[in-house]
Write the C-alpha cells for this entry.
Amino acid sequence: MSAIGMYKLLRRLEPVRAQLCRHSVYENLQSIEDIRIFMEHHVFAVWDFMSLLKSLQGELTCVKVPWIPIGSPRIRRLINEIVLAEETDQIDDRPISHFELYHSAMTEIGADVRSIDAVVTAVRGGTAVEVALRECNGPVGARAFVAKTFEIISSAKPHMIAAAFTFGREEPIPNMFRTLVDALVRHEKTKLKSLIAYLDRHIGLDEDHHTPMAVEMLAELCGADSTRWEEAAQAAITALSARMSLWSTAVSEISLARMGVPRRQAA
C-alpha cells in the first residue's frame, strides 16, 4: 500500500513540480545585484528549513531527558543522519551548518543580511517567530514563505511535516540548484565561490543521500493509511506552491530594482 500511496502522491505533484522547474527566476539572475536580491529572499528558506528538520527530529526521536526509545529505530537513524549533515556539515575541514555557509556566501557577494540577522537575533532572545518576521522588514514573500513553513510544523503531524520536507525541500533541490548554478556560472566566479559551493554540496548530498532517506521515512510514516497519504500530498503541494511564490516575489523585486524603484530598508 505504501508503494501505491507514494505513486499517487508523485502523480499529484507532477504539475506543480514542472512549474517550479520552469520558473522565470532562473533566467532573471542576470547580474550580481540580481543575485544579491535573490539571496536576500532565499536565505529565509535556508533558515526555516532547519526548523522543519528539527521539528521532525523532535517528533521522531527522543530529545528529552530522561531518554527513552521512541518510534522506529530506522526512522531515528534516517532523521539523525540528515540533521548531522545539515547542522554540522564538514566543509573545508571545518564543521558548519548550511545556513551559516549560506550566510557567509551572502556576505561574500555583498548581499544584505540585516533582515535575516534581525529574525535570528529576535528568536534567540525569545521573540515569537511571527513577531520576529513582522518586525524584521524582510521581503514580504520571504516572510509569507516562513509563515507557511511554520503552519505546517504546527500541525504536529510527522507525515505532513515529512512530506513538506521531502517533496517541498529535499527532492526538488538538485534540479532547482543545477539550474541556479547554470545561471550563475556566467558571472564573476570569485564573488560566487561560497554560493556555488553551497549549491553544489546540496545537489550531491540531497540527490544521492537525503532524498532517498526522506522518501523512505515518509513511506514508513504513512504506511497503509490513505488519510495520511492524502494529508502528505496536500502538505507537499502547499510547500511547493510556497516555493513558487517565494521565487515570484524575488523576480518582482529584481524587476523593480532594474527600473530604479527604491528598495525596502532592512531592519
Q: What stands out?
A: The CA atoms of residues 164 and 198 lie 21 Å apart. The first strand starts at residue 89 and ends at 91. The chain has a mean pLDDT of 93.
